[in-house]
């Protein structure tokens, strides 16, 4: 029997984070949850912040728990959401808690940027889908509203970069998460300096781009003393959680698309090079960085966050219901015809998601949804209809048919969602693994350490030992 290789994978989501321990015996990867913690944004005045200090504290708690296992850890990898960032001053002190991408400060900012720089020029260079919370628009907002922050900033680090820095004291911008900023040259896979200069954003704050599968550094002496761990390498995985999830999806051929089902739904294909043309502009597709230099040609769809917010809305109003209950009532809704557009601005950050859906249905002439089943069904219908539209547009872009959808992520535990996706899109749906982002995180670590040859081998391992369903 070969020696078992143990790795730690942190996956930070929009509502919670977790630490997973992986065990690789040369043939199979097993993962076990070691620690889970909430990720609750904080409203302070008019601004919505990530509680970064709490998140780093929880990261260290996870490392302390792992240390008590008394096993040899070969590496640590961290993946998180994209676009958001922290700024460090000349003393490497965090200037401000990172602002949440759902903060309202960027409302209307794209029109202001367009007066300085044509949006078409931005897209032609970056190939990134236009969303008001992209880093480029957040930074321009900082430039207008709180320029003193940028005046004092020496370093910009995206959330996974920031966590890695406080573990190792090494500063890089990892490629996959940097690509979500809409400031990376898609062809060169490096910073679009001319674009940055035109917007008067200080170019000096951006760090060297580090590709996935490289060692960032090693746990600092302070972290070793605090957690009880040794001098362990911290590895640049697909630091954007979608990049890790795509890496962990057992895609088989060019007629397959991936669908990451979580807070956001990410639907797309892998491409060896960026695809930036009139069709990708028209359909607002994005060219984000992937593992092994692949481009993730995809569309961001406002996904199960809507269902999460419905649950919160009903629970806040005294109706105790969980996700299985919502799914079941949606599947049995008396009125199956209600539908929303999940990407409508009404659903970005409403105070009450259930009321927002009611409002949308009335304003679009559908009538008033009466109960939980009708409201939930409107959300499910809207999400899955967007999947269908996205697939049709994707086929138009790449010029070939997509006959299979690989659905991965926590959302695939919702059987109704998977069945509805197959019914509405007319494609074969294969689900699994649930923990795609963790598997992707781990196989990139194993590649960096020389235990796995490449992404193809890693995906083969995942496929052979994961529970996949059609």
Automatic annotation (TrEMBL):
GO annotation terms (biological process): glycerol metabolic process; rhamnose catabolic process
Pfam families reported in the protein's UniProt record: FGGY_C, FGGY_N
InterPro entries: ATPase_NBD, Carb_kinase_FGGY, FGGY_C, FGGY_N, Rhamnulokinase
GO CC annotation, single: cytosol
Domain of life: Bacteria
Keyword Kinase: yes
Top EC class, one word: transferase
All copies of domain Carbohydrate kinase FGGY N-terminal, residue ranges: 6-247
EC number: 2.7.1.5
Residue ranges occupied by any Carbohydrate kinase FGGY C-terminal domain in the UniProt entry: 257-449
Cited CDD domains: ASKHA_NBD_FGGY_RhaB-like
GO molecular function terms attached to this record: ATP binding; glycerol kinase activity; rhamnulokinase activity
Keywords for the protein's UniProt record, in alphabetical order: ATP-binding, Disulfide bond, Kinase, Nucleotide-binding, Rhamnose metabolism, Transferase
Sequence similarity: Belongs to the FGGY kinase family.
Family annotation (PANTHER family): L-RHAMNULOKINASE, SUGAR KINASE
Name of the protein in question: Rhamnulokinase
Species whose genome carries this gene: Thermoanaerobacterium xylanolyticum (strain ATCC 49914 / DSM 7097 / LX-11)
């Amino acid at each position: 029997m070969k020696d078992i290789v143990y790795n730690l994978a942190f996956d930070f989501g929009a509502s919670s984070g977790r630490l997973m321990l992986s065990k690789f015996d040369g043939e199979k990867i097993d993962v076990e949850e070691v620690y889970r913690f909430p990720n609750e944004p904080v409203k302070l005045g008019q601004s919505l912040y990530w509680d970064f200090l709490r998140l780093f504290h929880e990261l260290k708690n996870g490392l302390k728990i792992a240390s008590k296992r008394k096993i040899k850890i070969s590496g640590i990898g961290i993946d998180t959401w994209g676009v958001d960032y922290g700024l460090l001053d000349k003393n490497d002190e965090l200037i401000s808690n990172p602002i949440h991408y759902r903060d309202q400060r960027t409302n209307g900012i794209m029109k202001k940027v367009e007066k300085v720089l044509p949006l078409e020029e931005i897209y032609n260079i970056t190939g990134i889908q236009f969303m008001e919370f992209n880093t480029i628009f957040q930074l321009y907002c900082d430039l207008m509203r709180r320029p003193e922050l940028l005046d004092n900033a020496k370093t910009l680090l995206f959330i996974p970069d920031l966590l890695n820095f406080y573990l190792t004291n090494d500063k890089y911008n990892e490629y996959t998460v940097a690509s979500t900023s809409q400031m990376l040259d898609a062809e060169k896979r490096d910073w679009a300096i001319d674009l940055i200069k035109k917007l008067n954003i200080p170019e000096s704050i951006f760090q060297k781009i580090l590709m996935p599968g490289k060692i960032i550094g090693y746990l600092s002496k302070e972290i070793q003393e605090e957690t009880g761990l040794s001098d362990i390498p911290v590895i640049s995985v697909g630091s954007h959680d979608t990049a890790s999830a795509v890496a962990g999806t057992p895609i088989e051929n060019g007629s397959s698309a991936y669908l990451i089902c979580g807070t956001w739904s990410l639907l797309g294909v892998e491409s060896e090079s960026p695809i930036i043309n009139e069709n990708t502009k028209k359909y607002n597709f994005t060219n984000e960085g992937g593992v092994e230099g692949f481009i993730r040609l995809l569309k961001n769809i406002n996904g199960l966050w809507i269902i999460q917010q419905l649950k919160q809305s009903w629970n806040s109003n005294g109706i105790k219901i969980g996700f299985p209950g919502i799914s079941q009532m949606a599947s049995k809704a008396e009125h199956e015809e209600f539908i929303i557009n999940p990407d409508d601005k009404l659903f970005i950050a409403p105070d009450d998601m259930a009321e927002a859906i009611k409002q949308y249905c009335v304003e679009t002439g559908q009538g008033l949804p009466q109960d939980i089943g009708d409201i939930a069904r409107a959300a499910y219908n809207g999400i899955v209809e967007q999947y269908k539209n996205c697939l049709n547009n994707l086929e138009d872009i790449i010029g070939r048919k997509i006959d299979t959808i690989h659905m991965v992520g926590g959302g695939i535990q919702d059987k109704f969602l998977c069945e509805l996706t197959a019914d509405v899109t007319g494609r074969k749906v294969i689900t699994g693994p649930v923990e795609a982002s963790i598997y992707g995180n781990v196989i990139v670590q194993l590649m960096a350490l020389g235990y796995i040859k490449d992404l193809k081998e890693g995906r083969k391992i995942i496929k052979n030992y994961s529970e996949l369903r059609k």
